[in-house]
Design brief:
Distance between the termini: 35 Å
Number of helices: 3
Shape: globular
Strand order of the largest sheet: 1-2-3-6-7
Number of strands: 8
CATH superfamily: Peptide deformylase
Strand content: 25-35%
Order of helices and strands: HEEEEEEEHEH
Largest sheet: 5 strands, antiparallel
Number of domains: 1
CATH class: Alpha Beta
Amino acid sequence: MGILKVARLGHPVLRRAADPVPPEALGTADTQRLIDDMIETMAEYDGVGLAAPQVHVSQRLVIYGVAANPRYPDAPPIPLTVLVNPRITPVGDEQEQDWEGCLSVPDLRGKVPRWAGLRVEALGRDGRLLRYTAEGFHARILQHELDHLDGKVYLDRMGSMESLAFLSEFQRYGLKRAD
C-alpha cells in the first residue's frame, strides 16, 4: 500500500466528470490496490472522505468514514465505506449550511449549503449493491465527495465567499462547525 499524491485545485482532473468504473474492474488487483491506497492516503491526511479524482484517477470511486479524527473530534462515527459509481438523491427539501474544507483546496474553509438527508445507491468494494440513507454530517461528506466525481469543489457550492477563511484564521478566531 502507499500514500498517493493529492491533486490540488487547478489540476484538470478535478474539473472533469469522472468515468464510471466497469463492475468487472472491482475484481482486479489494480482497483483493489487503488482502494487500499486511497484508504491509507485519507488516513495520512486525517480526512473523512476521498474521491478518486483527488488522487489523479478519473473514476467514479469514493471512500469515506469517520473514526477518531483530530480534525473532526465531535463528528459521529461513520464506518469506512467504499462506493463505486454512486448516485445520491435528496430526501426532502431541507438544507443545512456548515463549514467545509478539502484536501485538494488546502488551508481554506468556507460555509456550504448541502441537503440534510440523502438516499444513496452504489456498488460496494465487493461489487454488491448498497442502498441506504444518510443524514447530517454523513450526508455532507457524501455530497462533498460526489461533487468531485462531477468536476466540482466545495467553493463552487458556496452561496457567498464572505465565509471563506484560511485555516489559520478559522482556528485563531474560534470559528466552529454548526452542529
